[in-house]
Amino acid sequence: MGVLKKFEQRLEGLVNGTFAKVFKSEVQPVEIAGALQRECDNNATIWNRDRTVVPNDFIVELSTPDFERLSPYSGQLGDELAGMVRDYAKQQRYTFMGPIKVHLEKADDLDTGLYRVRSRTLASSTSQQAPGGPAPAAPAAGRPGGYGYPPAAAPAGAPPMPAAPPPGARGSAPYLQRPATAPAAGGRTRYWIEINGARHQISRPTLVLGRSTEADVRIDDPGVSRRHCEIRTGTPSTIQDLGSTNGIVVDGQHTTRATLRDGSRIVVGSTTIIYRQAEG
Known about the structure:
Layout: H1 3-15, H2 29-42, E1 45-48, E2 51-53, E3 57-62, H3 64-70, H4 74-92, E4 101-106, E5 115-120, E6 189-195, E7 198-201, E8 206-210, E9 217-218, E10 229-232, E11 237-241, E12 248-250, E13 253-255, E14 257-260, E15 265-268, E16 271-279
Parallel strand pairs: 3-4, 8-9
Antiparallel strand pairs: 1-2, 3-5, 6-7, 6-16, 8-10, 10-11, 11-14, 12-13, 12-15, 15-16
Helix pairs in contact: 1-4, 2-4
């Protein structure tokens, strides 16, 4: 079962109580949950082959009407959203540098039904934790207050982090950027995809995804065509729609062809696929 579906089911138990009025808001909690997943995917930073760090401190900016509807339940909703992020990180093998927190804030420049997500990575004093697991200590003090700054401390052997963003930088995209994955001279790059936690190695130059038993990877989803799309590995790797009925979405964009990077999020039908590549 997908992480978002589990999140919806947890909220169903609250609908008959005080949460019923919350869902009348133009912004639905499941929309926010999906945005937090994308924030993790788009701002993951690869420290080494076995560790990818994602933001752990999130601010969801809401319009005044939406904030007024949701704010009385912000603590409970924030806990549920943080739990969803933790489950998603475990599924994607992401790691946090500190405790996961989700805050709601009012933004006067947003109209009803619109929202904006900002994130940052706050390091705890003990950052060596299992992927998706909570940190045992509080965030380290002394970091700049603005969102979009790199972690306070990098794990041993990690690549250098980029410089802090320019003064006044603001918006949903934090300054952490995923470094490009390129094989070293004479090295070999491994390719694979992850579907619902299952890993499928790509051992040939092309991989066809679809509902047909003749596809290289069969996806049992009524929204997926028999031969839906094809992944071609290389420098760079690409994905091509094969004339499917419902098309493909890559990193949030509807497209017929796109370049793939490590961590690219592909949606076909109602199925999410994570593309992976690594050296060695």
